[in-house]
Each structure stands twice: as structure tokens, then as C-alpha cells.
Write a structure and sequence with these properties.
This protein is α+β, with helices and mostly antiparallel strands. It is built from twelve helices and 17 strands. Strand 15 and strand 16 form a beta hairpin.
């Protein structure tokens, strides 16, 4: 029985900052961002947008098409949690009007947890082949103003429907994974901005990749030549390219610039103009690949590498299914990204400095441009959400 990704929907905020604007404010050359890290724009969430509204908006197209009717497992992957107890997925479950017969859990392990969710969902469907699971990865990447990580900020969510006989990508059973206790990136409960040791994190990312690949190759008997495309965790697009070159070198395989563009280029298009989506970033890459590949990928094998600082890495693979182009949301994704509003530097800084009140007071938030749902206020320490759907 084939099990895998049946539908895949991506959502990001309606606002962005061009990194040329940030470069001017920081008195650096724009090429430091455009070429150095391979990023052009970063998505900025409005004050009434959070990981819940991003997540629900990502899954809304599935709701509209009746794809959530047989979902009995909802796994919400995030490292931008909003409550120490209640899973953010519960709010999403309500906004999407899902069946009460549904297990709902929030998962956390930096940027890796969506992959953990997918593997759990595959097991659930194997046991219940007539049911489906919904995995949602939703995050807001946030670093201090003026810090080295600032230009890699971003936000977004990906809704991933897992089922038997999937219409997009069948997940293969072999996988390699690696865990090590390191401090390359973390965010203590008392901070709203992450802390990162950038150079060290790059080293750990690549080490976890090589170890995960080694296990995968031993279990599957496959080599790099058995793959037609690759999708990597994308904290910034140059990281994915660097990682693949390191893997090729380890496997004693030559890869030129043109071949690199073929193997990775289409998977990097969305991340280049939205920034880091943390737990969803590798799946934003998969979405970008399926939406934008000029070649029909039916029957092609994709190598998938997921990494979460701290750290856990996993390499696995999937095979694109015949007819997949009839079930992607390519036009919707392109329209969203093409019709965002550009912010000035001052508008970006004002939004950055806006904080969700923590004094327990009563608040109603002004309405900005969001998707079909918004974070409308706080009452009696309770977050309140509003559906804008007629």
C-alpha cells in the first residue's frame, strides 16, 4: 500500500520587506543578502496574524474542497508556540470546522517536527487506510534587529494531507535519522527572539545530513544517481546548495552549477522570497518544486532532508505520482506571493516592535491584511480568533 502526501497547500503573510531596503538601513550592500545568502525578500506577519491563522489559512483550500472530512489525526508542528499547555492545533481544528473525532497534538523539535509528524501520520494511515491525517507546519522566524540572522526572518505555513494512494508523493519506507545534543540554535521561554551560533549550526546541519544519508543509503541501497530532485531544509537558500555540494563531495560525485540548478533550483523559488519558515521550510521547498517544475516529475524520486537544530536530522525519499499536476495549488500560491504589500523599513520596525500584550488585559486588535482568519484579540487571558469567511 502506498502512503504519502495527497494534498499540499502553502500560505504566507500578505506583507514583505525587500532585503534591498534592509541592506540600506544596515549600511551594507544588497548583494550580501541577494547573493551571499540567496535571499531577496522576507515575509512579515501582520500584528493580527500568528501561527494559528497562518496554519488555518494554509489548510483552508483543503477545507473548501471537502478534503478534511476523513481526517482523524491533526498534528501541528511549530517552534513558535503560543501556549505552554494548549496545542495551537486545537484552535486550527475549530477554525477549520473539523470533526470532533480527531486526535490533535502539537509537536516541537525546532525545524524538524513536521517530518516527525509526517512519519507518525504515515503509521496512522497504515493502521487506518480509509482515514487521513493532516500535518500542519507553521512558524514565524524572528531574530533581534541588526543581528546576523535578521535577514533570514520569514513566516509561513504548510498543510500536508497524508493518505493511502496519495495523489502527489508516495513516501518510501527507508529513512536515516540522527540525533545529537548540541546548542546551535535555541529560544528560551523568556525570549521572543531566537539565539543562534550560525557557523556552528551550519557545521551541525551538514554533519547530521551526512550521517542521515549514510543510514538511508545502507537501508535502501540507493546512491545519489537514483534521485531526480532534492529538497532540503532551507534556513536560507544558499544553505541548501552548500549542503548538497557537501553531500556530493562525500559521495565522490561531481555536481556543476547547471546540474545544481536542475536538482535544487525549482525547490528554492518560494523560500527565496518568503524567508525561513522553520518547521515548514523543507515542505515549502517541496511545494515550490511541484508547482514550478518545467519537467513532468511523475515517477521521479525526490530526496528529502529535514533538519531541526538542537539537533535532529532525517533523510528520506518520495516518488511523485502520475497526474500530480491536477492536484497542486500552483496558481493560488503564485497569486498570493505576487500580490503582497511591500513595507518600508519603518513599517517593518514598527511591526517588529509590536508585541502581543502579556499583562492579562482586554485587547481588540486592529484588522490588517490577512487570509481567511485573523487573531482578533485577548480576553481573560484567552486568545480570540475570527473567521473572515462568508
Amino acid at each position: 500500500m502506498n502512503i504519502g502526501i495527497d494534498r499540499l497547500s502553502f500560505y504566507s503573510s500578505h506583507y514583505y520587506l525587500d532585503l534591498k531596503t534592509l541592506a540600506e538601513a544596515r549600511s551594507v550592500e544588497a548583494d550580501k543578502y541577494y547573493i551571499g545568502i540567496g535571499q531577496e525578500k522576507m515575509a512579515i506577519p501582520a500584528p493580527d496574524e500568528d501561527v494559528v491563522t497562518l496554519a488555518a489559512s494554509a489548510a483552508y483550500p483543503l477545507m473548501k474542497e471537502g478534503e478534511l472530512e476523513n481526517v482523524e489525526l491533526l498534528l501541528f508542528a511549530t517552534e513558535s508556540g503560543i501556549d505552554q499547555s494548549k496545542a495551537a492545533g486545537i484552535y486550527v481544528h475549530s477554525l477549520l470546522e473539523m470533526s470532533p473525532r480527531c486526535r490533535t497534538v502539537e509537536l516541537k523539535q525546532a525545524c524538524y517536527s513536521a517530518t516527525a509528524g509526517i512519519q507518525l501520520a504515515v503509521g496512522f494511515v497504515a493502521r487506518n487506510p480509509d482515514k487521513k491525517a493532516l500535518v500542519i507546519a507553521s512558524d514565524i522566524a524572528r531574530y533581534e534587529l541588526g543581528s546576523p540572522g535578521e535577514a533570514t526572518q520569514g513566516c509561513g505555513a504548510v498543510a500536508i494531507l497524508i493518505s493511502a494512494d496519495p495523489r502527489l508523493v508516495s513516501i518510501e519506507p527507508e529513512c536515516g535519522y540522527y540525533t545529537e545534543d548540541v546548542m546551535d540554535f535555541w529560544r528560551p521561554n523568556y525570549r521572543s527572539e531566537a539565539l543562534v551560533d550560525g557557523k556552528y549550526s551550519t557545521t551541525v546541519y551538514i554533519h547530521a545530513l551526512l550521517e542521515s544519508w549514510k543510514q538511508y543509503a545502507e537501508l535502501s541501497g540507493r546512491g545519489l544517481g537514483d534521485f531526480d530532485r532534492f529538497c532540503y531544509h532551507i534556513p536560507f537558500t544558499k544553505m541548501a546548495e552548500k549542503a548538497h555540494r557537501k553531500l556530493c563531495r562525500k559521495c565522490k560525485t561531481d555536481v556543476g552549477d547547471e546540474q545544481m540548478q536542475t536538482l535544487l533550483g525549482e525547490s528554492l523559488l518560494y523560500s527565496r522570497i518568503t524567508g525561513n519558515c522553520y518547521s515548514g521550510s523543507m515542505y515549502v521547498g517541496l511545494c515550490s518544486l511541484l508547482d514550478n517544475a518545467e519537467e513532468d516529475l511523475a515517477g521521479k524520486r525526490i530526496g528529502l532532508y529535514s533538519y531541526g537544530s538542537g539537533c535532529v536530522g532525517e533523510f528520506f525519499s518520495g516518488v511523485v505520482q502520475p497526474g500530480y499536476r491536477d492536484f497542486v495549488y500552483a496558481d493560488q500560491h503564485r497569486n498570493l506571493l505576487a500580490n503582497r504589500t511591500e513595507l518600508t523599513y519603518q513599517q517593518y520596525e514598527d511591526i517588529f516592535n509590536y508585541g502581543v500584550p502579556t499583562d492579562g488585559g482586554e485587547y481588540v486588535f486592529p484588522q490588517y491584511k490577512t487570509g481567511p482568519f485573523r487573531f482578533s484579540g485577548i480576553s481573560q487571558h484567552k486568545r480570540e480568533y475570527e473567521s473572515l469567511v462568508d
